[in-house]
Please model this.
Amino acid sequence: MTNSHSADPRQLFTVLTAGALVLLVVHGLGRFIYTPLLPYLVADGQFSAADGAAVATWNYLGYLMGAMLAIRWHRIDQIRVMLPLFLAIHVVTTLVITQTDNLTVISASRWLNGVANGVVFVQAPALILEWLVLRNRASLSGLVYIGVGIGLLVSSGLVTGSATLLEGAERWWPAAVLSIPIAWWGAMQLRRLEVPVRQHDDSGQVVSNTPLLDRASIPLFLSYAGAGLGYILPMTFLPLLAKMTLPQGHGLLNGTWVIVALFTIPAPWLWNKLGALMGDLPALRLNFLIQLAGVLAAVVWPGAVGLVLCAALVGSTFLGTVLLTQRIGRALHPHQGPRLSAAMVALYGFTQMVGPWLTKQWLDGGGTLGSAFGIGVAALAFGLLFAFFVPRADLWRSRS
Model:
């Protein structure tokens, strides 16, 4: 957008808005909209609840595969091509699903939509972070994740607002129609970002890739794995836990997801600010403590109090974990930014698939859903522990 390594407030706003909007599209209108849609699709007779769960699994698998593809396509010149392409794939797969009740086609579309989500969720923030680093504004990078929180509310509003007007496959039309202009505008803005195709060190030499795993990144990867497993349990099962533990007609039966959404929206700004004030690594450790307390609350107080605390504390932290970890990884290995980001999101995606599977094994073994949240507590404790083994970026690079 400019040949000099500087950016005025208008440029910063445009870039961050574009990033937030593309995440709103792929995560809010792609992934999260399926949660409020599912009960309506089952009630319409499009498929059963079990089939709906299988469709969700295909989407999760696609997300993991998309993040793995982003490891391969991590260079800036590749991102400039792949980012618009996969935004287009999101739009096309959403349009396809508006036209069919065939379970195989729906599953394939949701799988491919998940692939697009995984690629874009890695590449858009990674590209923006590289652009911001060149302008000494890396501390603003987390603001792009505001789009995820807003996407929660937008997707819920689209489903509720059109509930009596549409039926079956038609229920996907609002997401498809809204995705088209937003995806196009966001892609056009991000393609214009001027970031060097190949990175150079302080002496001007081209930097080549070094091993992705080392003494600095391994504990960060392990910490992030704990975060992925820990947060996915409440984000998947919190509304169901409310239904199982609260009396019929209780206001929180549909309220826990709204609480999560409302606390998610300001979370990127909050953790962005805390990271800038106290340092990203101390902020990440604090983030883990708060998130762990939230999941623990659902175990210790299996009623309204625990549900509210879990929704509020997890909603206000899980995106902070993402943005802080991505930034710490970039600081530890400046030349590995997009590649490291992709590997972390792939790991996060894998642990998100493991969480529901472990919960199923727990329930099949006679455990309760409330006690299954203890898996999330243990995972977050694991993540917090390894967060203390991650070295400070300045000290690590001074040794390299």
Summary: Residues 23 and 147 are 6 Å apart (CA to CA). The chain is about 75% helix and 0% strand.
